[in-house]
Design brief:
heterotrimer, A mainly alpha (about 425), B alpha+beta (about 200), C mainly alpha (about 250), B: alpha+beta, Rieske Iron-sulfur Protein, three-stranded antiparallel β-sheet, 9 strands, about 20% helix, C: about 250 residues, Cytochrome Bc1 Complex, Chain D, domain 2, two-stranded antiparallel ribbon, 6 strands, about 10% strand, extended, Cyt_b/b6_C (chain A), transmembrane helix (chain A), Cytochrome b (chain A)
């Protein structure tokens, strides 16, 4: 048996001599810093969720009907008549939300430990592109069940483009292929969701990983292990603080995968709607172009950016400012490697100002999520009495959060470009905290 | 952590155990995806038994009804067509339907006419070669494909031929007689396809 | 290290339960319907109520008779004789007796399909709605509802519950009068407690109908989660073993 395998191996390597070295380069001879902590699980978990979305998505397309007349019914057909269809759909819907949980934590890790800084700017840019495509992918996927929230979500989000001066109206009709979200809209969103965007996403993920493996992984200390001493127990010329990705990080990631899947399974089997956060109640009503749901809001993972649209008032007769604000809030993340000129990567050794600013930034993001999901409408009356003017409180709170969000980038630029930051000494080598 | 002793046996054991348990998990996860390809509740409902009245089918006429999306031929065989059946035996592959075609009909239709009542043929009209639907050629007259034709079925795809009981002739591509579905008579003029007669399951 | 994992799980589960509890709080406070999908007898009673009082106007267009029989532990005969009063086949979905055009004429609005009513509104809403009908001379159909004011639906369960009337709060000047509570004017065939139980059963049945898979997913879920936790534990041992190499 072993003979058969080794001769097949030889047969393959005769014809593709670079295959085995490529595997080694990315797995057994990819030396990752040995001090990864909890935050470093989310990269591999994102890959896991991507695979889950692709596999369950392929099986959903087998029974889904991408037409305005049939889409809603076909989802119920999957939920009731197809053997195990409910499991496949819940894996897909839960996966979509967990994708964003994982990606947001992954991005926060990158910000916290300065993983976007030189020499990893390209890794960061590719990652941000993945995030952008993922948002488009999630939005179009959300429209496909053709519930009332799908319909009105599509209408509102597409209308964002209508705020663009001069061409806005024409652009909206062009995107929808009709005057309202309709058959044509659903058909093109389906095509983009199931084939076009996943292809782009896969390509970007490959590039993201390839770019990472060129420069090597960052770590919680923000120390470049390649610049440190050489020689470890596997290779005399490789960084002393590096360990082979396989088997050490593959087995470690396996622990994260197991735990993540257990949590995901808990949601899928016991709380698939997660009380309306992952699957909204109003989407159990079929799309109806005459009746708007009582509360129109995107799914939680878009709400931070969507809240910014709501918080910026219209001016000079156009609502484009809110939309610019929303796109700006994402564009600023792209520019982070150049906004932040700090000499030190990891938050562990950065100045107090940075630590405060980062905390504020995270709180502002969560605050915007709360505003966007209308959670504040429940929370504020409980905290401050039921007779307050909720809209005024929402606006005041939301505008402060928006200012803090943008303020983070302004502060970071001033703080690092004008040399205000007082950093702590960075150790020569990585520290382990186990 | 630094001074712990590496135990290769324990390492091998844990690797194998984790791999096996993980493998079991993957297999278990694959099962729902495979099962999702089975006929859905809707398909099964559409495949429910079909009831058909026989009142308007004249001798020598054929009616086609759909059962589980399959074409089911219901033929009222005329006395002359019935009389021609035994004469075909020498030219057939399995005239008694007890050789290669013994699984092609329920036990209660494993007889000379392959039916419950001699005149009524109820048969899934799918050629046993590659699944085409054979043409009903009921008249007993010389045909281009057989100068001595005694009525039966002719498959346009690869020229397989069957007699008036769906029994396949020798020398054609099709290997077996056509399938007789489970069916029973609710009364003298009503047949139900998809359900065995009482006590005959 | 292991402590950290445990605290992470605890945190994640806490967040899950917390958000769920918070979301359930939204909207006006409604009394809990107290439904229980594991109570098969309740589901059966609810099915009987639905097919005796509701299906005349409301369909369950995604639900098959056969599925109801399978999930509620009923035989084909039970369902076809006691629940199905149309000529629908066992494998067919539940279509109401009333043609939609007629319904539109009678009520000005076609009665909605109830397959997903509980998914959309929640069990507490449905329960409160079924308990919120009262006589209202101002309404064209004679009935009104506290949960869905000016509902176009007459109240077919009145012979069970009886007839309620609204007791108004002392009106403040310049404000519309508010309903304080409902009281029973003429009792029906059931006592108030029996009626509450009947509507709880009906709500339970509608909850089942809005997601029949809920019965299966709870059945399998516990084993899947336990298996994955066991796998995680094994993977953790494996990780510790390999990481003895890392100094």
């Amino acid at each position: 048996m072993a003979n058969v395998f080794s001769s097949i191996g030889e047969w393959v390597s005769d014809r593709a001599p670079n295959l085995a070295p490529t595997y080694r380069k990315h797995m057994t001879e990819y030396y990752a810093p040995k001090n990864f902590n909890l935050w470093y699980y989310f990269g591999s978990l994102a890959l896991l969720v991507l695979v889950n979305q692709i596999v369950t998505g392929i099986f959903l397309t087998m029974n889904y009907d991408p037409s305005a007349a049939g889409a809603f019914d076909s989802v119920q057909y999957i939920m009731r008549d197809v053997e195990w269809g409910w499991l496949i759909r819940y894996m897909h819907t839960t996966g979509a939300s967990l994708f964003f949980v994982v990606i947001y934590l992954h991005m926060f890790r990158g910000i916290m430990y300065g993983s976007y800084k030189k020499p990893r700017e390209l890794v960061w840019l590719l990652g941000m592109l993945i995030f952008l495509v993922l948002m488009a992918e999630a939005f179009m996927g959300y429209v496909l069940p053709w519930g009332n929230m799908s319909f009105w979500g599509a209408k509102v989000i597409v209308s964002l483009f209508g705020t663009i001066p001069v061409i806005g109206g024409t652009l909206v009709e062009w995107i929808m292929g009709d005057f309202l979200p309709a058959d044509a809209t659903l058909n093109r969103f389906f095509a983009l969701h199931v084939i076009a965007l996943p292809l782009v996403l896969l390509l970007l993920v490959v590039l993201h990983l390839a770019a990472l493996h060129e420069v090597g992984s960052n770590n919680p200390d923000g120390v470049e292990i390649k610049k440190g001493p050489k020689g470890n127990r596997w290779d005399a010329l490789k960084p002393a603080d590096g360990i082979p990705f396989h088997p050490y990080y593959t087995v470690k990631d396996l622990v994260g995968v197991g735990l993540f899947l257990a949590i995901a399974a808990f949601i899928i089997f016991f709380q698939p709607t997660l009380g309306g956060w992952f699957l909204e109640h109003d989407n159990s009503i079929a799309a109806n172009n005459l009746v708007t749901p009582t509360q129109i809001k995107p799914v939680w993972y878009f709400t931070a950016f969507y809240a910014i649209v709501r918080m910026i008032p219209s001016a000079l007769g156009t609502a484009v400012w809110g939309v610019l604000g929303m796109f700006g809030s994402i564009a600023l993340l792209f520019l982070l490697p150049w906004i932040d000129a700090g000499k030190v990567k990891s938050v562990r050794y950065r100045g107090t100002g940075y630590k405060v600013a980062l905390t504020m930034f995270v709180l502002a993001f969560l605050g915007l999520v709360m505003i966007g999901t209308d959670y504040t409408d429940v929370l504020f009356p409980k905290l401050f009495g039921s007779d307050i003017d909720i809209t005024a409180w929402d606006n005041a709170f939301g505008r402060v959060m928006t200012l803090i969000y943008f303020g983070f980038f302004v502060f970071l630029w001033l703080y690092t470009h004008l040399g205000w930051e007082k950093t702590k000494p960075v150790p020569e080598r990585v520290t382990t905290h186990d | 952590m630094a001074n712990e002793v590496v135990d290769p046996g324990r390492r091998r054991f844990l690797t194998a155990t984790t791999a096996v348990v993980g493998g079991v998990g993957v297999v278990a996860a694959v099962v729902p995806f495979i099962k999702s390809w089975e006929p859905s509740a809707r398909a099964k409902a559409a495949g429910a038994p079909v009831t058909q009245s026989l009142k308007k089918i004249e001798p020598g006429q054929q009616l086609i009804v759909a059962w589980r999306s399959l074409p089911v031929f219901i033929v009222n065989r005329s006395p002359s067509q019935l009389a021609a059946l035994p004469k075909q035996d020498p030219r057939l592959v399995d005239p008694g339907s007890n050789g290669t075609s013994s699984d092609q009909q329920p036990k209660y239709a494993q007889n000379a006419t392959r039916s419950i009542k001699p005149e009524w043929l109820v048969m899934v009209g799918i050629c046993t070669h590659l699944g085409c639907v054979p043409d009903y050629v009921g008249e007993m007259k010389a045909e281009p494909f057989d100068p001595n034709w005694q009525g039966g079925y002719y498959c346009p795809c690869h020229h397989s031929r069957y007699d008036m009981a769906g029994r396949v002739y020798q020398g054609v591509p099709a290997p077996k007689n056509m399938v007789i579905p489970p069916y029973h008579f609710i009364d003298d003029t009503t047949v139900q396809i998809g359900v065995d007669p009482q006590g005959a399951a | 290290m292991i402590k950290r994992y445990i605290s992470t799980i605890a945190l994640a589960l806490g967040l899950l339960l917390g958000t769920t509890a918070v979301m359930a709080d939204e909207g006006p406070e409604l009394p809990s319907a107290g439904t229980n999908l594991r109570d098969q007898a309740s589901l059966q009673r609810g099915a009987h109520l639905f097919f005796n009082y509701c299906v005349g106007c409301h369909s369950l267009k995604y639900v098959r008779y056969e599925r109801i029989a399978d999930d509620l532990g009923l035989s084909e005969q039970d369902v076809m004789q006691n629940l199905n009063f149309t000529d629908a086949k066992f494998g067919d979905t539940v279509i109401s007796h009333m043609p939609p055009d007629d319904a539109q004429k009678f009520f000005g609005k076609a009665p909605p399909d109830l397959s997903l009513e509980v998914s959309a509104k929640g069990p507490d809403w449905v329960f409160a709605y079924l308990n919120g009908f009262y006589l209202d001379p101002k309404s064209p159909i004679g009935w009104n509802n506290t949960i869905l004011p000016n509902a176009a639906m007459p109240f077919p369960l009145w012979e069970l519950q009886g007839q309620q009337i609204a007791v108004m709060k002392p009106a403040k000047s310049g404000e519309d009068p508010q309903i304080d509570k409902l009281t029973l004017l003429h009792p029906g065939r059931l006592t108030p407690e029996q009626y509450q139980q009947a509507t709880r059963d009906l709500t339970n049945f509608l909850e089942y109908v809005s997601e029949p898979a809920a019965l299966q997913r709870r059945h399998y879920g516990i084993w899947v989660v336990l298996f994955l936790l066991a796998f995680t534990f094994l993977a953790y041992l494996l990780k510790k073993e390999y990481w003895k190499d890392v100094h």
